[in-house]
Design a protein that fits this description.
Number of helices: 9
Shape: extended
Strand content: 35-45%
Strand order of the largest sheet: 94-93-97-98-91-99
Largest sheet: 6 strands, mixed
Number of strands: 99
């Protein structure tokens, strides 16, 4: 039947989807179904008919849909032969309409049946959900209504152990014996286990000693587990006669049960550090106690990668490897005992780690991820308690894809609220998120990162249905498979805003069904309310989830939104528009709490209570802050918001006064601070005293007993007012009251006793609060008169001055002395809890009742006892003292010795623990009270001061002080003669004090020429007095001279507007402030006065000079790296008409650079010569005045210039180089330029080179060199050039050796050969003129001088052809001269004539142009006319 219904529904959905894709509708109403998992809904829409069920007429008339080719052919056929087929088509249309009506009728029947089936299934689901709801209401964790009960039986008897358990679902029960699983199959004849209707019983038919032990039943269910246990004791008939010890096994096990011993106190740990809490137990844990549970704020903790829990032997610990603020809270350990669950807890405070930036805020906390989708999550967190140097302005959200390790910021602008939607994530990716708070200093430390979150489709599981078939097989059906052939998706539905903030809106919608069997994405569109235009809100973002945050909305503007579905087949129609949506109003900060009240708790804690504000709707919790009263130094108490309105603040200092205030916490941030609480002093709250202890019999007369006891370990914060005693005879259970009025001392005489009877006693201590619990009953004392010769026992043992390695023990003398008086005391000590091992402290009896025990091991626990001694012997020892650790208590103070403000010597002591009625008891040498005439005592709060009125040697000795109700808080001081002498000197200094001078007389001259005399002392009171004396006369303020006296700063000033000769003299300031006084003198005469007067006058003139344009920087010179001299100055306070002129020796310099904007003017001199020496002057002027600056570049100043120039030239020198010449080598150094003031020296192998025939130094404007003629191997080595600029020597080095020398020598030889060849080469020494002019008919003689070795050959040429020796030409050749004569020249002789000389070394040619002109013509202008 279910399969048939599913098929019918599948057909209906396919028909509906196909009809939607064709966008056709009919005129019939119908009922629609979404899916089998949704409720049936009814609508007024008309049914959608598939295309194959519509009439042909309707199909052919549809123009806006794509048509199949068949229909087009059919239409063409009908148009061609419409008349012929009209009747046939009419019958066909009528039959199609009948078929259509039948289909619609059948569709209604199918839908009616589907409606009934859907309603039936809905009813079944609601019924099943109701049953499950009732079951959930009745669910209970396992609990034993009737636990197991302990039994004691005789051997061989039958016993039945029963228990009743409750719980829903019914728990399963497991039995254990002595921690091991109880197996019935091992002894089926002896054990019988029955369980029915919550009752479980174990029957043991014949008990034996082996059956004795601890039986435990554990009930387990998914909601938890419960345990009950009981002990079975089997007594043997033989008992002790048979020597059986098994019957006592259970009893011994009961005594070994572990309890809490030393447990963890309130703990503080820095954020990010590790934390370990430890509980110890005095004995090993029993098997049923092994599962020690740890809880935080009531939630059980389990071992994980961050938490480690260990339980072994007698210890249990929990370790947090990295503590975060989320881990702050109450940590508790729970231990299972036979009496139930024992628990110990303490608060763990997580302090803020160091700030990421100075003044930055602390880290937020409790970052939580919700509403996880494919590409969207929603984050919430809680604000930090500490804002830093400025209030928190907002938050940055960061994400990290697991495995990448890079944190990316999610929001560009700070988010003010503590929630934020994160969009644009990748589907199927693990992300972690964290948050940073931001203030003016920057971003603070990040919060604890969230656990990895997988982005996925949260509705994926709803699209899958598993159908069970026979034989355990299943069929998985998805909704996509039931969608048929639908491809294009339907539009989404239910578009609304799921999150509204004042900066963003998060849209949510329901995905369409059917989806189109393909992955969906969405377009989000928006429109202003009242307008019909829509624009894309998602822009180019890919929206994969039915969530979308919109940020760019305008305030106080309403919008409509709609969504379209998209898959690869197309885009759906838009959804129905949402209701109007607008940005919300900014969430206001919460109101602060009020009525903050602090109540005393312990010596280090305070109980703080407050009332929540009236409007507490959005409050997440509260932050607490504390400060010492009057200091305003506020510190944070908790870093995790408290949800309750009361909290115990730990870690406070005893006897300090504190104030508190509270903040409310919400998602909008923290409220302002509440009003401060009333100041409270930290000390214990009042309670009844603890029980007394160690009741001892001090004396018995036969009818009376004198009892003594030890005071309570705690008086409850109020002194003990008295003690009450009860008594009873041994063998009776009834206690009788001994005294109605409280006993004031720690001993009491009990009368009316019967001699020979045994009595027990107990003692109650009472204070202002009430009567405390009774002490343990004393041992049975025999009422019999004491007649023993030895003395009784000392009593009232008390410790004083307990320090590391030492203590002082005091006691009271015994009441019974024996036959003779007590002569001394013997002391014994026991270490730890070894009461049977005592060691003697003193070999000889001591007479005092005080004894200082030294040489103890620091931190070790000890007990002591005292015995009295008389002539008869040693009496019984006192009861052992209470255990004491030889260790200085935290905060213990010693006696302070000093001198007070009035000059009195005092001893001071400050108590850490003290009650309102506690008193300080001062004594001398432990027993003598202080002399009231020589000392006086004053107590303020927890401090007492003993002041000596007139200290002398009579006051020397050992002084002790203790609290009246806590003698353990005590100290002593040995006041010696050295202390007396030292303190008396200090007392005189206090009673005759000097006003401390911070600075003596100082003289200052201002820029305007005014003068100031001043001195400064320490801060003075308002009653301080000043007298100023000048030249033995007291002075006061005048118009010319003003006097200021600032008492708070201790500043004395004398101000002179214009210093004059009359102000010369001696100035003395006399100061008095109460008893303190001092004076200071200034001798203001002679040279010091004249220098000050001249400086004041110069400053006044400078002020006048600066009224117009003036030189801000006077003329100065400098030499730059290029060895150029620059003279510059800078003027200021100029105007447009201001002029600046330069002069040298009275002549104006024209080439001057001047920039009016910067005021800089300069003259540059590229090369310095003696002409640059002289006097330079610059004048700036306008209508307001002028200023002059001069620079004397003469004498010493010119020498300084040359020295600086020489230095710069030397610094500009390049490295030494070598140059080969025909004569030898030249070592040279290039400079910017060289001046004679730069002294140069050459050194070879560290020896100075003097000028000789082979070496010759030289220089030019840009070079310094030395020539080495005819170099040899002896010239190899290191050459040094030293350049001395007048102050410093600058060196240049050159190593002439190896390849450098060889190459240079080779080049020298080559040049030398060239020089020789050049010298002996044939050449014309005196050449011919370039052009020669001669008149026709005259003779021309051309002569040349020649040189060369060997004598050169001579050839004369005419137009580059050799001239033969003819009659017209006469050629003469001599060794040094040659000539040619042209006889009777004519115009044909014009041309180029040359002489060519040559020998083996070379040749040379000299040319001349001969121009012959006729008579009456003019020779050429450039020719030499020959006559």
């Amino acid at each position: 039947m279910e399969t048939r219904v599913a098929m019918l529904r599948d057909q209906e959905q396919q028909l509906s989807q196909m009809s939607h894709s064709m966008q056709l509708s009919s005129q019939m109403t119908k009922r629609t179904f979404a899916s089998s998992d949704e409720d049936a809904s009814y609508s007024g829409l008309y049914p959608i008919i598939p295309a194959d069920l519509m009439s042909v007429k309707e199909i052919l008339n549809i123009n806006n849909l794509p048509r199949h080719r068949t229909w087009e052919i059919l239409q063409e056929t009908l148009a061609a032969d419409e008349d012929y087929h009209r009747d046939k088509w009419t019958r066909f249309g009528n039959e199609a309409e009948k078929v259509e009506l039948d289909v619609i009728r059948n569709q209604r029947v199918l839908r009616t049946r589907a409606d009934k089936l859907a309603l039936r299934k809905q009813a079944e689901q609601k019924s099943c959900a109701h049953i499950q709801f009732l079951e959930k209401l009745s669910r209970r964790a396992p609990d034993f209504a009737v636990p197991l009960r302990a039994h004691t039986v005789w051997e061989g008897m039958m016993v039945k152990l029963c228990c009743t358990v409750q719980g829903c679902p019914p728990p399963t029960l497991t039995w254990y014996k002595d921690g091991e699983l109880l197996t019935m199959s091992s002894q089926p004849w002896n054990y019988s286990l029955q369980q029915s209707f919550g009752l479980s019983s174990l029957e043991i038919r014949r008990c034996s000693p082996d059956d004795a032990g601890e039986y435990k039943v554990v009930a387990r269910s998914p909601l938890g587990e419960a345990t009950t246990f009981a002990v079975l004791v089997v007594n043997s008939y033989r008992g002790a006669v048979a020597g059986s010890e098994r019957s006592q096994t259970a009893a011994s096990q009961l005594q070994e049960e572990a309890q809490f011993d030393v447990s963890f106190p309130p703990t503080w740990v820095k954020e990010g550090s590790s934390l370990t809490l430890l509980c110890t137990f005095p004995s090993a844990l029993l098997p049923f106690q092994q599962d020690v549970s740890w809880f935080r704020d009531g939630v059980q903790l389990h071992p994980s990668s961050d938490v480690d829990i260990e339980t072994f032997d007698n210890k249990s610990s929990i370790t947090l490897w990295a503590a975060h603020k989320e881990h702050e809270g109450v940590y508790s350990a729970r231990l299972r005992t036979r009496d139930g669950i024992k628990e110990h807890g303490a608060f763990v405070y997580i302090n803020d780690a160091s700030a990421a930036v100075k003044g930055g805020p602390a880290s937020p906390l409790a970052v939580e991820v919700s509403d996880v989708n494919k590409d969207y999550v929603f984050l919430t967190w809680q604000p930090p308690s500490a804002d830093g140097a400025s209030p928190v302005e907002g938050y940055y959200v960061e994400r990290c894809a697991l495995g990448q390790g890079e944190w990316v910021r999610c929001n560009a602008h700070v988010q003010k609220m503590c929630h934020f939607p994160v969009f644009g994530l990748k589907e199927g990716t693990l992300y972690q998120f964290r948050v940073r708070a931001v203030n003016q200093a920057g971003a603070g430390r990040p919060s604890k990162a969230t656990e990895p979150v997988l982005t996925s489709d949260p509705l994926e599981h709803t699209r899958t249905m598993v159908v069970k078939v026979d034989r355990g097989r299943t069929i998985t059906i998805t909704k996509d498979e039931l969608e048929g052939q639908v491809k294009a998706p339907f539009p989404p539905t239910n578009v609304h805003a799921c999150e509204v903030s004042d900066t963003y809106v998060v849209l949510s919608w329901t995905e369409p069904e059917p989806r189109g069997r393909e992955p969906l994405t969405f377009y989000v569109e928006r429109s202003l309310a009242g307008r019909g235009s829509w624009d894309l809100a998602s822009l180019d973002l890919v929206v994969s989830s039915p969530r979308f945050p919109v940020f760019d909305l305008q305030k106080e503007t309403q919008y409509h939104f709609r969504v379209r579905s998209i898959n690869k087949y197309g885009v759906s129609d838009p959804s129905e528009p949402s209701a109007p949506i607008a940005l919300g109003k900014p969430q206001a900060l919460p109101a602060p709490p009020h009525s903050v009240l602090a109540v005393r708790d312990t010596d280090t804690s305070v109980l703080l209570q407050w009332k929540e504000p009236n409007d507490n709707t959005d409050i997440l919790g509260y932050y607490l802050y504390y400060s010492e009263a009057g200091k305003q130094d506020w510190k944070t108490v908790n870093n995790k918001p408290l949800t309750k309105t009361r909290f115990t603040v730990h870690g406070l200092k005893t006897w300090k006064e504190y104030v508190f205030r509270v903040k409310s916490v919400s998602r909008a941030g923290n409220s302002r601070y509440s009003d401060e609480s009333q100041p409270i002093v930290v000390k214990s709250a009042l309670s009844v005293p603890s029980p007394p202890s160690a009741i001892a019999l001090l004396l018995c007369t036969g009818s009376e007993m004198v009892l003594g006891w030890r005071a309570p370990s705690s008086n409850g914060g109020n002194p003990v007012r008295g003690y009450y005693l009860d008594q009873r005879e041994t063998g009776t259970e009834t206690w009788k009251e001994v005294n109605v009025r409280p006993a004031k001392e720690k001993q009491f005489k009990v009368s009316n006793l019967t001699s020979g009877c045994f009595y027990q006693f107990r003692v109650f201590a009472a204070n202002m609060v009430g009567v405390g619990k009774p002490s343990d009953a004393s041992e049975a004392f025999l009422c019999e008169k004491w007649t023993m010769p030895e003395p009784g026992c000392p009593y009232d043992l008390e410790f004083r001055e307990v320090r590391n390695g030492s203590l002082v023990l005091g006691w009271a003398t015994p009441l019974y002395e024996g036959r003779s008086p007590v002569t001394g005391y013997l002391l014994e000590i026991s270490q730890g809890d070894q009461l049977d091992s005592w060691t003697s402290l003193n070999k000889k009896p001591i007479s005092e009742t005080l004894y200082k025990v030294s040489g103890l091991q620091a931190g070790q626990t000890y007990r002591l006892r005292v015995s009295a001694v008389n002539e008869a012997g040693v009496g019984p020892a006192s009861l052992p003292s209470e255990p004491v650790a030889a260790q200085t208590r935290p905060g213990t103070r010693d006696i302070e010795v000093g001198v007070d403000d009035d000059g009195f010597i005092f001893l001071g002591f400050e108590a850490v623990e003290m009650n309102d009625e506690s008193k300080f008891l001062w004594s001398k040498n432990y027993t003598e009270p202080t002399d009231a005439e020589r000392t006086k005592t004053e107590t303020r709060q927890n401090r007492s001061v003993l002041t000596f009125t007139d200290p002398s040697e009579e006051d020397l000795g050992l002084y002790t002080v203790e609290l009246s109700d806590v003698p353990q808080i005590s100290a002593s001081y040995d006041f010696t003669a050295e202390d007396l002498e030292r303190l008396k000197e200090l007392s005189w200094q206090v009673r005759n004090p000097l006003i401390a001078l911070k600075s003596g007389w100082q003289v200052e001259v201002s820029e305007k020429g005014a003068m100031r005399l001043w001195l400064q002392t320490e801060s003075l009171s308002d009653s301080a007095e000043l007298r100023l004396i000048c030249n033995d006369r007291e002075i006061s303020s005048t118009p010319h001279r003003r006097i200021n006296f600032d008492k708070a700063k201790g500043l004395v000033e004398i101000l002179f507007d214009q210093l004059s000769q009359d102000d010369e003299g001696s100035y003395t300031a006399q100061l008095r402030d109460g008893r303190a006084k001092n004076q200071c003198t200034l001798v203001f005469v002679d040279q010091k006065f004249r220098e000050t007067l001249a400086l004041a006058d110069a400053n006044r003139r400078e002020i006048q000079r600066k009224a117009g344009p003036y030189f801000q920087e006077y003329l100065t010179w400098s030499v730059n790296e290029d060895c150029e001299l620059t003279i510059k100055c800078k003027v200021t306070n100029t105007k447009k008409d201001t002029t600046l002129k330069w002069f040298k020796e009275g002549l104006e310099i024209k080439e001057v650079f001047y920039d009016p904007t910067s005021g800089i003017s300069s003259v540059s001199i590229p090369q310095v010569t003696k002409r640059e020496a002289g006097s330079y002057r610059a004048v700036v002027s306008d209508g307001r005045g002028q200023d002059v600056s001069t620079l004397e570049l003469l004498n010493d100043e010119y020498d300084k210039l040359l020295q600086q120039l020489s230095k710069q030239c030397a610094l500009s020198a390049g490295p030494l180089r070598i140059q080969s010449t025909a004569e030898g080598f030249r070592l040279y150094c290039a400079l910017k330029y060289y001046i004679n003031s730069l002294k140069t020296s050459w050194f070879f192998r560290e020896k100075r080179i003097d000028q000789d025939a082979r070496t010759k130094p030289g220089s030019s404007m840009q070079k310094v060199w030395i020539d080495i003629s005819n170099p040899t191997e002896n010239d190899k080595g290191k050459y040094t050039l030293e350049m001395f600029d007048g102050k410093e020597t600058h060196k240049g080095l050159f190593e002439l050796s190896g390849e450098v020398f060889a190459e240079a020598l080779l080049e020298h030889q080559r040049l030398k050969q060239l020089a020789i060849a050049e010298k002996n080469r044939a050449k014309v020494t005196k050449g011919l003129p370039d052009v020669v002019a001669i008149m026709e008919g005259k003779s021309l003689c051309l002569t040349c001088f020649i040189d060369g070795d060997p004598a050169p050959e001579i050839f004369w040429l005419r137009n580059d052809r050799e001239i033969p020796d003819q009659a017209q030409f006469t050629i003469t050749k001599e060794p040094k001269r040659s000539s040619i004569t042209i006889n009777k020249v004519n115009t044909e002789d014009s041309g180029k004539y040359s002489i060519f000389v040559c020998n083996k070394h070379g040749s040379e040619t000299a040319d001349v142009t001969v121009s012959v002109y006729k008579q009456g013509d003019k020779p050429p202008a450039n020719a030499v006319e020959m006559v």
